[in-house]
Amino acid sequence: MAAAATCIAVVAVAMAVLAPGARGLDRRADFPPGFLFGAATSSYQVEGAYLDDNKSLSNWDVYTHTHPGKIKDGRNADVADDHYHRYMDDVELVRDLGVNSYRFSISWARIVPRGRLGEVNSAGIAFYSRLIDALLQKDIQPFVTLNHFDMPHELETRYGGWLGAGIREEFEYYTDVCFKAFGDRVRFWTTFNEPNLLVKFQFMLGKHPPNRCSPPFGHCNRGDSRREPYVAAHNVLLSHAAAVRNYRTNYQVTRDG
Ligand SMILES: *[C@@H]1O[C@H](CO)[C@@H](O)[C@H](O)[C@H]1NC(C)=O
User: Fold this and answer.
1) Best of 53, 54, 55, 111 to mutate for ligand 1, by most ligand atoms within 8 A of CB?
2) Residues assigned a catalytic role
3) Domains in the chain, CATH or no CATH each
4) Helix ranges restricted to H, the chain
5) How far is the CA of 54 from the centre of ligand 1 (A)?
6) What is the mean pLDDT of each run of 10 residues along the chain (257 residues)?
7) What pLDDT is recorded for position 81?
8) How far is residue 6's CA from residue 17's CA, in Å, rounded to a whole number?
9) Ligand 1 pocket residue status of 54, Cβ below 6 Å
10) What is the pLDDT of residue 253?
């Protein structure tokens, strides 16, 4: 999950080199029309607030607490950058970078903590709604990633994560809730962050939850590195297809997304 953090660092360094001391100037005025230049984060890496406002535990919350040796220095993201509470400051920082777009991911466990068999969490919807409004108010285009390696722990347990075919309906349901709640303001959507790496880290190398792999690729308690990554990839692709079909059929035209 290092890629998103690297993006922010690269943008920050580039802006510092190009415009030392120009903090607060609106360099965006120099962009060609339609040009988007941005920074990016992912929910688990920045939000913290891992038990706040009816969010359920995600696969990463459980994994970092139960496999302390897997993360450098036994750390976790219970607090992280505390973006959940400090998002207004963070939007201000993004604005000061001089970029005009910002990509973030939504935490599935905040929106539908128990999947499609439970309730939609209005507090989770309200959080991303406030974030999107704050970005738009600063003329920053929100880019929403619907899945950046995380899912409710309960769904990982129920379906074996991306190994189980039932996860496709769950993803379609969760993404529909997002399109409905944020589609009036968000035009740019990504279904999966790095799906190739998602299945590789989860089911071939076993470095990410649910920590499944087999020799010679890695040493996990369970898994089959020669088979499972392909099963998971199959379900990820069909989940993507279901979300895209739903968006194109029911949201794209009216919302120009
Ligand atoms: C969390 O859920 C409970 C039970 O549905 C509800 O009473 C409470 O208002 C919710 N909290 C927030 C912050 O939405």
Assistant:
1) 54
2) 194
3) 9-17+38-193 (3.20.20.80)
4) 2-18, 43-46, 59-66, 83-97, 108-111, 122-137, 153-159, 167-182, 195-199, 228-250, 252-255
5) 6
6) 41 44 65 94 98 98 92 94 98 95 98 97 98 97 98 98 98 98 97 98 97 97 98 98 97 87
7) 97
8) 16
9) yes
10) 86
